[in-house]
Each structure stands twice: as C-alpha cells, then as structure tokens.
Amino acid sequence: MTIDLIIQLIASLTGTGGLIALFLITEKKTAAQLQNTRKMDEKWQQIIAQKERDFALLNDKYEAATAKIERLYDDNSELRNSLDQVNTDCAVSRIMRCDCIGCHPAGLLSEHSTTRYSRAMKNDRISRNFTYSEFERSDTAALHGIDNAIPDDRIRRAVRLLVGNVLQPLRDAMRVPLHINSGYRSSALNTLLSGSRNSQHTKGEAADIAAPDPLLLAQTVIRNSLPFDQMILYSTFVHISHKPDGPQRGQILYDSSYKEHYPDTL
Ligand SMILES: [Zn+2]
Fold first, then answer.
1. How many whole angstroms from 182 Cα to the centroid of ligand 1?
2. What does the pLDDT look like over 168-188, one tens digit per residue?
3. Which of 11, 81, 94, 206 is deepest in the core (most CB within 10 A)?
4. Nearest in space to 135 (alpha carbons), one of 170, 185, 85, 66
C-alpha cells in the first residue's frame, strides 16, 4: 500500500473535520508543553533568586566574622606586646640583681640598678678561679623563672669555705678549669631537681664538678688530702661537699650511673 493510498484512506475515514480535530489536539499539546516549560523556568528563577539572597547573607556573615577576627588579632597583638614588655622588665631586673621592677623605667637603667649591679660584680669573686655566680647559675632555674640567688651570708660563707678548702686547691692540683654543673640550689630548684630534702646544695656546702674522668678527679682530692665531707662519683661529674664547721665525714659513694659506666674500677 502506497502513502497516497494511506492518506486517501485516513481522509475518507475522518473527513475534513477529523483532520482539523487532529490539528487542534496537537496544538493544545504543544501549548501545554510550553506552559510547563515556562512554569519550570519561573521555578528555577525563584530558586536562583533565593540562592543569591542566601549567598549575600553568608557573605555579610563572612565579612562580619573577618572583621571580628581582625579586631581579636589586634587585641591579641596588644596583649602579646604587653607580655613581652613585662618579660623584658623581669629579665633585666633579674640580671641586674634588682627585685624592684619600678627602678627600670623605659629601658633606662636607674642609678639604683647600676649601683647594685657594680656592687654585685665586685662581690662576686670568691677565689682566683671561682665566683658566686657560678654557684647560682642554673639552666633549670632560668627555664622555670626561679630566683636562684644566694639569699644570705650564712650560705655565702659555706660556699666560700667549700671553694677555699676544697675546690680552689683541687683546681690548682688539676691545672685545668673546673666547671660547676650545679652549685647552690634554692629549695624551689632543689624540689624541681628532685634533690634530697637535706641536700647540702641548699646550704651552699656542695658542688657538682663536671669530670670527663671522675676517678681521676676523686683521686686528686684524696692525694692532696682535701677536707671533703662527702664525695659521690657519677658517670660525668663528681659531687663534692664540705661542712663549714666540720667535722668532715670523708665519705665516698658511687652513683648507679658511675657503676654502670665504670664497672671495672669498683
Ligand atoms: Zn650534687
């Protein structure tokens, strides 16, 4: 059957009115589709508008938060600067042996500070090779902000007698500089170092002397009959004490670190 015959057949079945109806149906369908598309378009426009409003709102919030962070950062900088200034004042006061922060205005050292400082320097020397500063110096104390200055003359006297009777003669006999790892310990420092409660370090009666060869150092003390109260050999240093008013016990002990390091010498 050819196409012409099919058209003739439909035309004969539906007549002209049928064709018009068919055309109208198609037209209506297209109009409905267009309306749907318009509705969808409007819906999308509404969604986009809402998203734009949401974005603007978020943007406002973001800008407000950024401004707040900047303000906080400025406040924080001021606090940091104040803290730095206080730390600097404290450090300078401590170095100058001055416990009065008020005497160091605007970075200019007052006469009060400098006088105390020069007096401290003059009074620092104990003997040819030892100073009180060496006994007071402590990295641990510095790290924890502990004042480890010798507080009274009783302790200064004990330190002086330890140096005069044992350490300076030992230094002369050894003919090498002796480094004090730990000398005087304030009770706060002693607690931090887990020292014994009655440690002679807290009385200025003891010093830990760095020693690459602890046995040689101990032998030198004994050969020269130096009046020590107690001598404890560690793997890298020797603890030596001297009682200011005697009697000296002459006690020798070996720390476990020494025993582990030099088992053959025991
Ligand atoms: Zn010690």
1. 7
2. 999 999 999 999 999 999 999
3. 206
4. 185
Would you say how long the chain is, in residues? 266
pTM exceeding 0.85 = no
- What separation in angstroms does the CA of 108 have from each of 27, 77, 101, 117? 98, 24, 12, 14
| CA 64–ligand 1 middle distance (angstroms) | 60
Fold of 125-265: Muramoyl-pentapeptide Carboxypeptidase; domain 2 (3.30.1380)
User: Which residue intervals of the chain are DSSP H helices?
Assistant: 3-95, 111-122, 132-136, 139-143, 153-162, 168-174, 187-192, 214-223, 256-261
Q: What span, in angstroms and rounded, lies between the C-alpha atoms of 197 and 262?
A: 28
Cβ-based neighbour number of residue 42 at 10 Å: 10
Bridge pairing between strands 206-210 and 251-254: unpaired
Residue-wise pLDDT tens digits, 106-159? 444 555 555 555 555 667 999 999 999 999 999 999 999 999 999 999 999 999
Domain boundary assignment for the chain: 17-123, 125-265
Q: How far is the CA of 205 from the centre of ligand 1 (A)?
A: 10
Q: What SS3 state is found at 195? A: coil
Neighbours of ion ligand 1 (CB under 5 A): 208, 239
Strand partners, 61: none
The conformation of residue 105, written as its DSSP 8-state character, comes to G
- End-to-end Cα spacing for the chain: 125
141 C-alpha to ligand 1 centroid (Å) = 16
